[in-house]
Task: structure prediction
Amino acid sequence: MTHWLRTTAITGGLLLLSACGGGETTSPDPTPSRSYSVGGSVTGLSGDSLALKVNGGTALTVAEGTASWTHTTSVANGSPYTVTISKQPAGRRCTLAQASGTVSGADVTSVSVTCAAVTWVTSAVAGSDGRGYVNAQGTQAKFNGVYGIVTDPDGYVYVTDYNNHAIRKITQGGTVTTFFDQNSNSSSMGFSYPSGLARDSQGNFFVSSPDYHLIYKITPSGGFSIFAGGGSSQTQSGYTDGQGTAALFNNPQGLAVDQNDNVYVADTSNYAIRMITPQGLVSTWAGTGTSGVTNGVRGQAEFGYPTGVAFGPDGSLYVADGTANQIRMIAPDGQVSALAGTGYSGQTDGVASNATFTEPMGICTDSQGTLYVTERDTNTVRMVSLPYEVTDSQGNTTRYPARVSTIAGSGLAGDTDDPAGPNTTTGRIDAIAVDRDGTLYFTKNFRTPTDRSVVRKITPQ
Result:
């Protein structure tokens, strides 16, 4: 009897200890609450960076020459992940493999990124032998001096037809029509010698006339006015800030529009960059009115012969400075610097500070921030990747320089796609624009052996 009671008491004590959390127990598995990193390998990345996102979050910059990567964003165990490329490297196209899945109790290291060089294919869009004013399909159309060029969100291309005093419109299929010309203008004001061309967020077009030293405005409905410059005579040159036609320019050429619809003008022979508000107020944005190659605060900087302007995604304004043989940058804080080019004439590719240009003329930027530059007399199109920085897990920051490469043109008088062959034609390449798909369009005018004005495109493949 006593033995039975003793056994029962001991058993009851064990049960009580177990119920109160005492005795030997097994801890719950902590894995479900953990988060894991996502990463993988990279091959073929050179000349520029790419940016990767995990589940649409913060972008991770991956530097050129990198072989592996790990994103700073962690993903909870049991949760799905998707890796996307938010920025492609300039001149290369990267693809992903095993880019999505579910985190399962370990870091993901299987996402692979493979990069390869883009092939640039140049082809005809519109224009043919002999100058004229013919609306037609593709190479059956005729122009008479094409200069400025811009694309719209719907994929249409617009060019200024200088000697026809017109703006021509080109569909994606290559059909050329007249968007605006002297006959479209019902006012007493003339529309003459259009050159630079830009478009704002409202669909308004702005056109420079270097011969008449003014800027025209054309609304989407076809309304026409002199937006700024020209003075009372509508042809006066000079260097005066002010409202509308009271302001004066001297040989204005390239145009660009910022996110607030301010228009920026390469006021070429005033060696300055001018800004025009949507209300038509003109001021000097950068430059002193004296030719030079001086960097620093924009109000004290000097330009050699600015011809083309374009905005980057961060709000920096890039300037093709012709006689300076450089690409200049005006940062959002107002500092002017040389982005690329030594200042000496040449056609050297490579690190931007060692690269050379020969009279850069037109300039544009794509959605990734890559710059494309035309050289008027060497008949080449150059690509400039922007500098970038990468900070490692220890907080060490490495700065990578901008780089310059040639994507089209032989550097001879004629391009390799010219029917007459390289070095057999004379002429020059002028303005350049990029469409929503990354296709580049440029204008070119020839003199010999056949006189013609054409629009061509460069397709990345």
